[in-house]
Amino acid sequence: MQSIVAKDLTKQFGDFTAVNHINFSVEKGEIFGFLGANGAGKTTAIKMMSGLLLPTSGDAIVGGYSIRTDSKQIKRHIGYMSQRFSLYNDLTIFENMQLFGTVYGIPAKELKDRIHQSLSKLKMDDQANSLVASIPLGWKQKLAFATAILHRPEIVFLDEPTSGVDPIVRREFWKLIYQAAASGITIFVTTHYMDEAEYCHRISIMAEGSLKLIGTPSELKQQMGVDTIDDVFVKFVKR
Amino acid sequence: MSEIDIQHINKRFGKVEALKDINLTVEAGEVFGLVGPDGAGKSTLFNILTTLLLPDSGSATILGMDIINDYLQIRRSIGYLPGVFSLYPDLSVQENLDFFAAMYKSSIRDNMNIIKPIWDQLLPFKDRPAGKLSGGMKQKLALCCALIHKPSLLFLDEPTTGVDPVSRREFWDILKDIQHKGVTVVVSTPYMDEATRCDRIALIQNGNIIEINTPNNIIANFKGHLCTMPTSDIFGLMKIMDRFELKCNYYPYGEHFHIVFYDDIKKALPAFEQFLEKNGRVHGEISSIQPNIEDCFIELIQMKL
Predict the structure, then answer these.
(1) CA-CA distances (angstroms) from residue B165 to A46, A191, A204, B85, B99?
(2) Residue A50: which CATH number?
(3) For residue A97, which of A8, A129, A168, B272 sits 20 to 30 Å off, Cα-Cα?
(4) A147: distance to nearest CA of chain B, Å?
(5) What is the pairing mode between strands B200-205 and B208-213?
(6) Cβ separation A39–B134 shorter than 8 A
(7) What are the domain boundaries of chain B?
């Protein structure tokens, strides 16, 4: 089953084509890495797929809904987190999760149970009443991820979720991604860490608004005749 | 005399100890890297060294001047590229640069020699408002502005965070060029792979400096024996590893699995192979490799836990 199907997805800002007829699909439960240089069009593409921006032409079906006609439905069926915005610093951990869960319409009692389950999975039960401002960034990011999937979305978009996080917590974060994918949630993730690209089932590389490469990490390495995704990226961008 | 000499600096914000007894020196002509995750204390230390924030205790000299008593002279002598974009978005590229030059009673022409390689790349956009530049170009303009008064010491707070791998490399090439023109460079980064571009680095975590050395020495001081093996099911492998009895540390590393043995490798390696077979794990060839800075950082943090 496919979670995302993009068909000739295009976005123009004036004369500038930010996203140029991109086509791809992502399977349910897949971890799909979305790579590209700064300014390649990644953020614009993600904004369209999450129903925040209408395409100029083309369409994408996300969780069974068209981004052209059903953007409201899409917002209900996806989760989103980024490095820039994740949780409110002035609320406690519990309050943050309660706020996001309520926005997504999870019934109060059910929500309480889910929050406790998810905190105990992170071994953070005892910190439910701590202010988010007081916890280290790495923990914040793990918590933001747990919050983004509290409403059990079909797809979660992660925009540079591990930027600036220490190497140990980065790996713990990826463990959470794997668990979520194994439970059937589709993961759409961007990163500038090329070792993380290797953890994805499939990756794609965007440049100048077009989707230039797509495949499993080993396919792409073979195709470019190099040993690491870092080399694939460098070779590709420089050529 | 060292360009920077930091003695016992402490800084606390409420309950958070942002810096704990920091001691370090930076020598003239070095590229010195402060390497650690967000929240480690890198920006706090930068703010203290650039005289924007007072330490709770301890002292430091910059180019022989005291950070508290001589702060005005320090500000005239150093360049500082802050972690957040702080140029005027409504002024053009040229206007921003003119403005910063004027503030330091200098001019673009006077210091063309030092900024030329970067300025050449900015020239096609010189009339564009700074707010409308791409991320990479903004960073290059900010660097020009920080260099326009020819400082002998340049501070760069996370200049490459969120920048793609190719642009990151280009930025480091520019830093090397600046170093060759006689500027001492102090730079912070959360990217472990950039550590090797520095002459010396301090690894920083939770307000503590956990190591100061050359990248080569840090690698040479790695305590364990690092092995790597390719595997298609890294996270499946992670799940069974807590049943392996010998002392070791393990973590995914790209498409490879890294395992660090702390017992005699001649015994540990066969035991590990046996363990994999017993658990029905097909695996690729296990080979010994040299650790990189990320492996070292993981080992150093884990030894502290």
Answers:
(1) 20, 10, 15, 20, 31
(2) 3.40.50.300
(3) A168
(4) 21
(5) antiparallel
(6) yes
(7) 4-219, 222-304
Q: Whole-model pTM?
A: 0.84
- Determine contact, residues A185/A155, Cβ cutoff 8 Å: yes
CATH level 3 topology of B4-219 = Rossmann fold (3.40.50)
Pick among A168, A203, A235 to test the B interface (most B CBs inside 10 A): A168
Q: Which residues contact B82 (CB under 8 A, 6 or more apart)?
A: B46, B157
In angstroms, the Cα distances linking A191 to A33, B22, B197 are 8, 32, 22
pLDDT at residue B305, rounded to an integer: 64
The pLDDT tens digits of the residues spanning B208-246 come to: 999 999 999 999 999 999 999 988 777 788 888 889 989
What domain range is A124 assigned to? 2-238
Q: H/E element holding A199?
A: none
Kindly write down the DSSP assignment for every residue of B182-212, as one continuous string. Answer: T-EEEEEES-GGGGGGSSEEEEEETTEEEEE
Helix (H) or strand (E) holding A92: none
Which stretches of chain A drop beneath a pLDDT of 70?
84-85, 239
Tens digit of pLDDT per residue, chain B (305 long)? 899 999 999 999 988 899 999 999 999 999 999 999 888 999 999 999 999 999 999 999 999 999 999 999 999 999 999 988 889 999 999 999 999 999 998 888 888 888 988 999 899 999 999 998 877 788 899 999 999 999 999 999 999 887 888 888 889 999 999 999 999 999 999 888 899 999 999 999 999 999 999 999 999 999 999 999 988 777 788 888 889 989 999 998 888 899 999 999 999 999 999 999 998 887 788 999 999 999 999 999 888 76
Superfamily of domain B222-304: Reverse transcriptase/Diguanylate cyclase domain (3.30.70.270)
Cβ separation of B169 and A192 shorter than 8 Å? no
Distance (Å) from the alpha carbon of B83 to chain A's nearest alpha carbon: 12
Q: Are A163 and B251 within 8 A, CB to CB?
A: no
Domains in chain A, number: 1
